[in-house]
Specification:
Layout lengths: L10 H20 L4 H8 L3 H8 L7 H17 L11
Helix pairs in contact: 2-3
Length: 88
């Protein structure tokens, strides 16, 4: 029996996986998170993070929601504030 990551996928699915891989990896590296930290935060294994970042698998919808929620909270709390110009 094949593993889910070994099943044939469409060209569209491959592009979606590549895009997601770049997105997750960029987010993780931007905020200096390890794969282990992100895995623990999202509730999956480090190996699964590796597979997502390699574009080999599509995460479960619940994992996608958890990641999205974590990302939105983190980015909104850590977004650099714009400096105000002095008018004086």
């Amino acid at each position: 029996m094949r593993k889910p990551s070994e099943l044939p996928v469409s060209a569209e699915e491959r592009e979606e996986r590549k895009s997601r891989a770049r997105d997750w990896k960029t987010f993780r590296k931007t905020f200096l998170f390890t794969q282990k930290f992100l895995a623990d935060t999202v509730g999956i294994s480090r190996r699964t993070i590796q597979e997502i970042e390699a574009g080999n698998i599509t995460p479960h919808p619940a994992t996608l929601r958890t990641f999205h929620t974590f990302r939105m909270k983190h980015e909104s709390n850590n977004h650099p504030k714009k400096k105000r110009k002095s008018h004086g």
